[in-house]
Amino acid sequence: MTNKSGVRVLVGTRKGAFILTSDEKRTKWDVSGPHFAGWEIFHMKGSPADPDRLYASQFSGWSGQLIQRSNDGGKTWAPVNNKFVYDGVPGTHQWYDGTPHPWEFKRVWHLEPSLTDPDTVYAGIEDAALFRTTDGGQSWGELSGLRGHGSGPHWQPGAGGMCLHTILIDPSDPARIFIAISAAGAFRTDDAGETWKPINRGLRSEYIPDPSAEVGHCVHRIAMHRSRPGTLFMQKHWDVMRSDDAGDQWHEVSGNLPTDFGFVIDVHAHEPETIYVVPIKSDAEHYPLEGKLRVYRSKTGGNEWEALTKGLPQSDCYVNVLRDAMAIDALDSCGVYFGTTGGQVYASPDGGDNWAPIVRDLPAVLSVEVQTLA
Amino acid sequence: MIRVVLPGHLRDLAHVNGEVELEVEGQVTQRSILDALEARYPMLSGTMRDHVTQLRRPFLRFFACSEDLSHELPDTPLPEAVASGAEPFLIVGAIAGG
């Protein structure tokens, strides 16, 4: 039985997938894996409409991209279609040196199942584009209005590649979707993906020729609370940002953070103004400041932050926490999870006050998602 | 009957052990072998050659009869020893692990 009260944590790593399960106490864990041993699992996510329906993005340098699907909560998997073909002539984007570079499919960074239909899933890919399946992964089609928005030739890759890594579906209006691309910025559609607009006003990035440009910002992650989908929180390359008008205007809420570089950001399940980040020292030094792994929590929607350290290593810690590697469960006492490039997955069953590792020695963690099981 | 040796990660994906034996219609070429492999094992589609360009994936190589055939054109006939099944067609992953 998988459908008992508890959580299922889906962990993608450099060398396979792991599934960590626990009851609502979240003190004893069952570890299953590695699934797809030896392959990079960029992301795994379950359908909100059917928790036993899972999707996984599986990649290797030898054999490219696969998409796996499970109908039984991860006990068994089967590959589905892995054909991602851009609409029309893909054209060019900017390379790191500013020269035109052909758009080429490389991998799937993020899979976002529909909130209501287990067979509908959005895929964020590198080179950046948004794809969708409506048949459970049997076929994929591009929502090419995004790439064709007009600014595409000016997008350029971040250090990890030109990836579309964040997909947020508005629970109150499924036609409204937010996405983010490194390094182009954030975009929004209000018509289910037909047309898109950049939503980067208020972002300032000193590392691009025009720091306030419409596109070109290295957005690392966006998060929202489902009860307030017009409020967005962003971890940019540097700067933690907030918008209260669905991205039309952003303002900085880094406040007293010791460094505002980082990758992850997430929102408490029951408190829409409680947010979490993991500050990283800098764009060149991808590890925690002073070797202390600290999650920072703001209960005021930003600006005022407190360090959460209980149970986390406070010396000689030089891991990173990648952009898709934090997740929040929806149990009454909200659980917070994150994974590190050192192979640890930490869990806090009490909103961040206390932490403990679920596992310590996995391959480098690329992504963490959690399902709250009824 | 054509004999094909897949790299370990593709054997796992296709749920096969050891060599794969295939019937190939017509001339035995890289393309006809890959067509037959993908028809029997659909999960291998896109893992050996690009879906769109049909080009060999850059970190895979093709060998047979102690020869590197990776850069042969896809419709070039393969050696008779492969066509007869005396020698296997080897699909090999580059030594590029990590």
Describe the overall structure:
The complex is a heterodimer of chains A (374) and B (98). By secondary structure, chain A is mostly beta strands. Chain A has strands spanning 6-13, 16-23, 30-35, 40-47, 50-60, 64-70, 78-80, 92-94, 100-102, 107-113, 121-126, 129-133, 141-142, 163-169, 177-182, 185-189, 197-198, 219-225, 228-236, 240-243, 251-252, 261-267, 275-280, 295-298, 306-308, 326-328, 336-339, 345-348, 356-359, 365-373. A 4-stranded antiparallel sheet of chain A has the order 3-2-1-30, with no helix packed on it. Chain A is globular, with a radius of gyration of 19 Å. The N and C termini of chain A lie close together (12 Å). In chain A, 53% of the residues are buried. Chain B has 98 residues and is α+β, with helices and mostly antiparallel strands. In chain B, strand 3 and strand 4 (67-68) form a beta hairpin. Helices cover 22% and strands 19% of the residues of chain B. Chain B has a 5-stranded mixed sheet with strand order 2-1-5-3-4, covered by helices on one side. Chain B is globular, with a radius of gyration of 12 Å. Chain B has helices at 8-14, 30-40, 80-83; strands at residues 2-5, 20-22, 60-64, 67-68, 89-93. Chain B contains 3 helices and 5 strands, in the order βαβαββαβ. The longest helix of chain B has 11 residues, at 30-40. Chain A binds chain B through residues 37-39, 60-66, 78-79, 82-83, 85, and chain B through 7, 9-10, 12-13, 43, 45-48, 50-52, 57, 59-60, 93-94, 96.
Terminal CA distance of chain B: 36 Å
- Total DSSP helices of chain A: 0
Helix content of chain A: under 10%
Secondary structural class of chain A? mainly beta
Query: Major sheet of chain A, described briefly?
Result: 4 strands, antiparallel
SSE class of chain B: alpha+beta
> Which stretches of chain A of 5+ consecutive residues score pLDDT under 50?
none
The chain-level mean pLDDT of chain B equals 95
Number of strands of chain B: 5
Helix tally of chain B equals 3
Order of helices and strands of chain A: EEEEEEEEEEEEEEEEEEEEEEEEEEEEEE
Oligomer description: heterodimer
| Biggest interface, chains and residue tallies | A-B, 15 and 19 residues
Sheet with most strands of chain B: 5 strands, mixed
Shape of chain A: globular
